[in-house]
Amino acid sequence: MSTSSHVRNTGDTVAAWAARTVVGVPTLLPTPRSPDDLRTSPLTQAVATHCPYCALQCSMTLTPSASTAVVEAGVGGLCSKGWSSAALLDSPRRLTSPLVRDGRHGRLREAGWDEALDVAAAGFRWARQQAGPDAVGVFGGGGLTNEKAYLLGKFARVALRTSQIDYNGRFCMSSAAAGAMRTFGLDRGLPFPLADIGDAGCVLLVGSNLAETMPPVMQHLSRQRESGGALIVVDPRRTPTAAAATLHLQVQPGTDLALANGLLFLALELGHVDEDYIEARTTGWPDVRRAVSASWPAQVELTTGVSEPDLREAVRMLAATDRAVILTARGAEQHAHGVDTVSSFLNLALALGLAGRPGSGWGCLTGQGNGQGGREHGQKADQLPGYRKLDDPAARAHVAAVWGIDPTDLPAPGRSAYELLDALGEDGGPSALLLMGSNPVVSAPRARHVQARLAALDCLVVADVVLSETAVMADVVLPVAQWAEEDGTTTDLQGRVLLRRRALDPPAGVRTDLHVLAGLANRLDVPTGFPSEPEAVFDELRRASAGGAADYAGISYDRLAAGEKLHWPCPYEGHPGTPRLFLDRFATPNGRANFVAVHPPEQVEPVDAEFPLLLTTGRVAAHYQSGAQTRRIDVLTDAAPTAFVELHPFLAERLEVADGERVRVSTRRGEAFLRTRLTDTIRPDTVFVPFHWAGRQRANSLTSDALDPVSKMPSFKLCAARIDRVAEAVR
Ligand code: SF4
Fold first, then answer.
1. Which of 139, 363, 505, 600 is most buried, by the most CB atoms less than 10 A from its CB?
2. What is the model's pTM?
3. Would you say the CB of residue 78 lies under 6 angstroms from ligand 1?
4. With a 6 A CB cut-off, is 51 part of the ligand 1 pocket?
């Protein structure tokens, strides 16, 4: 595939310009570069690397072809996003010069790096002088390498001294992480190798459409099915993954917890609970046993929409093997009660004796490319590197020593991601923000409100590859290198650390995120402690994480380059890493896993006469997260050019809308204008909108900012909505 083809300015980009105009700050579109002008040193030899997108981090090879780079698949194959990922390297739409806005309401114009960094640093200094260190916020991303995530956290706490840092992984993994922490005492997405699911006698997959979001995983599930294993999929939609299942439980959105409690009730009734395991390895069982005692099948059927025979069949399948695996993902987790929902499935896994045994267990399917490593090394509001906690005096002392500062100079925990965005420009909230590797104008809940908060900032600095919908609002835009243009490590969904090697130089005018942090720190009078060489940052990360839960001390670039497969914790050089956790003990103080009693929640936003439908959001195969990258790749926009609203023909008939008709979808937060897509694979009470698009197609104009009380995860997967024909809506 040639990557030199012209990349179109999509309708979404146009919508972003329009949105910016609404807030009154016009922007000058940078001149597109021709691919031939872009790069001074093209790829000359094949380089083994990993896909830049999801947490599967598929291996692949970048190979020179004509004047550009192309992708060859690694052993596991690639999805369309991976195949086309090199296209953005030479895209004329990528940023190749810093941009600075002339005055608050002026235009963005091209600038030199010194000027752009000077303006950014001056904005941060001014905000700090007005209202103290917390007047500057930092917002990171789950796609940043371990080195960037680590240095961003250090930059916030050491160079800015702010507590106001969080990242978009809060919108992705936080409920699973919090659930795992309170049950196992440790959060690692999969505590066992991914390949285990291919050997499982039964897989219960809750809220994941792997066939479209991580297609290479399906080969493990195919192997599992061919060996006689059962696959149970819990999803409100009969997705391609659900269609491949032995049993599809087409649950009503937001009722997964009730379903899990109902399955546990039946496991008890049918005598499948492993009392010996519970006695030997857990605490808290009596409370959970009591909590599920009211989860009668008839009641669960009423709540979830899953029939009693199907509930019984699911329990029979899970209990028929000693190699059962329970996996949760965003469908179960992205709710205002996501942590309790994760706990309900963890309870089921513990009651069946699955966790901490080879070949079985509970795991979570991490989404973003470095969603795992990105949450371990300090860009979370409450966290220091190595999964240390900011409110732990010993953790503060350890990290402060590595950073060469007094522990008392470390700030306290700050606001979570949405709370931080919600506070921007408000009294007591940040008036300046550094944003790196994220596009919250598209990906945050209640996005119209978030857009307004960003517009209220005195100084917004965005480091990105492209002029995203958030970057277009910035006062300073810093063009940064892409995955193939710099060294760095990521940690995949099974806790394995991977080394991505620099394959080619970034275009002239582009610098790395590490250079950005070093340049800003220098201008903020912190001239040392911010190396821009990735290996030097990683070596410091190793020291900072040493002795922590996510211990990387024994992992080095040399070991990774030599092909060693290292899963953390890996506490010393020569340690083989830990592919399987919890075989002897859990990471709790007493070594036992904690049952946590949870009850089905009240709906945070019940349907009513005005908003009678259940809206859920999600992904399509061709796009990744906010679409900032994938909406600029022709082959992907050709495959999925626009958003849509999926609804059942019965509902369409009731609403008198036709397939392909443009409708208005609205909620209590806002509206989106979308084409209908009729399918009998969705529940008639539920509508689905993918969230990769911006402007009037933006799903997150609709979503709710109700937050989980523990994880602060927004309720992306459920809110009340209505659909109107556009003619009626206009009238
Ligand atoms: Fe990339 Fe994920 Fe697709 Fe693999 S499954 S090619 S890591 S996007």
1. 139
2. 0.94
3. yes
4. yes
- Determine whether the shortest distance from the Cβ of 71 to ligand 1 is under 6 A: no
Please indicate whether residue 81, judged by its CB atom, sits closer than 6 Å to ligand 1.
Answer: yes
Domain 613-725, CATH number (from 2.40.50.1070, 3.40.50.300, 3.30.428.10, 2.40.40.20): 2.40.40.20
CA separation, residue 227 to residues 26, 144, 199, 220 (Å): 59, 38, 8, 11
Taking a C-beta distance cutoff of 8 angstroms, is the pair 339, 178 a contact?
Answer: yes
Domain ranges of the chain: 14-28+94-171+370-532, 35-88, 174-364, 613-725
Q: How many Cα atoms sit within 13 Å of 659 on the Cβ side?
A: 7
Q: Counting atoms of ligand 1 from 1, which one is nearest the CA of 80?
A: 3
Atom 2 in ligand 1: residue holding the nearest Cα: 54
| Token pair listed for 246 | 């032995």
Topology at the third CATH level for domain 174-364: Dimethylsulfoxide Reductase; domain 2 (3.40.228)
- Residue 49 Cα to ligand 1 middle (Å): 12
Give the Cα separation of 541 and 151 in Å (integer).
9
Q: Specify the CATH number for 35-88; select among 2.20.100, 3.40.50, 2.120.10, 2.20.25.
A: 2.20.25
Between CA 55 and CA 43 the distance in angstroms is 25
Atom of ligand 1 nearest to the CA of 50: 7
Domain spanning 14-28+94-171+370-532, CATH architecture = 3-Layer(aba) Sandwich (3.40)
The best mutation among 49, 54, 365, 491 to test binding of ligand 1, ranked by most ligand atoms within 8 Å of the C-beta, falls on 54
Residue 672, beta-bridge partner list: 665
User: Residue 407 Cα, ligand 1 centroid: separation in angstroms?
Assistant: 40
Cβ of 55 below 6 Å from ligand 1: no
Contact between 530 and 159 (Cβ < 8 Å):
yes
Q: State the virtual CA torsion across 576, 580, 583, 587 in degrees, nearest 10.
A: 90
| Block residue for tokens 């009850």 | 599
Q: What is residue 76's predicted lDDT score, i.e. its pLDDT?
A: 74
SS3 for 648-711 is CHHHHHHHCCCCCCEEEEECCCCEEEEEEEECCCECCCEEEEECCCCHHHCHHHCCEEEECCCC
Q: Does residue 54 line the site of ligand 1, with CB under 6 A?
A: yes
DSSP structure string for 519-557: HHHHHTT--SS---SHHHHHHHHHHHHTTSSS--TT--H
- Give the residue whose CA is nearest to atom 5 of ligand 1: 214
- Determine the pLDDT at residue 39: 63
DSSP state of 89: T
Which residue's CA is minimally distant from atom 4 of ligand 1?
Answer: 58
500 lines ligand 1 (CB under 6 A): no
Residue minimizing CA distance to atom 3 of ligand 1: 79
Q: Is the CB of 38 under 6 A from ligand 1?
A: no
CA 675, CA 393: separation in Å to the nearest integer?
Answer: 54
Contact residues for 563 (Cβ-Cβ < 8 A; gap 6+) = none
Mean pLDDT, consecutive 10-residue stretches, the chain (731 aa), reads 29 32 41 57 85 93 80 82 93 95 90 98 98 98 97 98 96 95 97 96 97 94 96 97 97 97 98 98 98 97 98 98 96 96 98 97 93 93 96 98 98 98 97 97 97 97 97 98 96 96 94 98 97 98 97 98 97 97 98 98 92 97 94 96 98 97 97 98 97 97 97 96 81 43
Question: At 344, phi and psi to the nearest 5?
Answer: -65, -35
Beta bridge pairs of residue 247: 232
Instruction: Identify the pLDDT of residue 103.
Output: 82
Q: How far apart are CA 122 and CA 126, in angstroms?
A: 6
Residue 214 Cβ inside 6 Å of ligand 1? The answer reads yes
Ligand 1 geometric centre to CA of 208 (Å): 15
- DSSP helix, strand, coil percent of the chain (3-state; round to 5): 35, 20, 45
